[in-house]
């Protein structure tokens, strides 16, 4: 099962389920930079992140990207599952963030596991509920936050425990659906206010309370 046996739902499969997975042609993918799934692509299986992170995003006609949600280790892509179960083409784009490994379970195998294995049913339902929550959070930001507030929220939510966010300004722009130039200007304002400090490809929070106040003054 490659590294799948280390992921929660697969550790709890029945013996029959484990044998089914062992007999399947599960492939391990280490995606390069750039899209690994694109809009209109036919989906052949279920994608589970083993390590790293996948970013699912939309692409406007003018080329501007906007993040829909991230897929973290142990999680699966609900858009891919929906395409798989309903024989639909993939509705967005996907790229790997940093060093990422993904397991691809063939469609027929995943359908059989979903039909008979409660852990797979559970992870699928949780993935759906998580997606709804994340999309609602993104919509709330788009409709109620100004762009500087969305940037501050992005930094606070995705920074490490040490207050460090390892994203380039271009990646931030893609996430927010804007341009790198706009992000650079807003980051300059945050730096001038003493809220963050920046280095190449990295942002460090200097005043978390001030950042939080910016979002909800």
Write the layout of secondary structure elements.
Elements lengths: L7 H4 L3 H9 L3 E3 L5 E3 L7 E15 L5 E7 L6 H9 L6 E14 H10 L1 H27 L2 H12 L5 E2 L3 H8 L3 H13 L3 E4 L2 E4 L2 H8 L2
CATH architectural designation of the largest domain? Sandwich
C-alpha Rg (nearest Å): 19 Å
| Count of strand segments | 8
What is the average of the pLDDT values? Answer: 84
**What fraction, in percent, of the residue positions are helical?**
40-55%
CATH fold-level name of the largest domain = Jelly Rolls
What's the CATH class of the largest domain, please? Mainly Beta
- Strand share of the residues? 15-25%
Count of individual domains: 2
Gross morphology is elongated
Largest sheet: 5 strands, antiparallel
- Which class of secondary structure composition applies to the elements? alpha+beta
Low-confidence stretches: none
**SSE order, as H and E?**
HHEEEEHEHHHEHHEEH
Provide the CATH superfamily of the largest domain.
Jelly Rolls
Q: What is the straight-line distance between the termini? A: 50 Å
What is the tally of helical segments?
Answer: 9
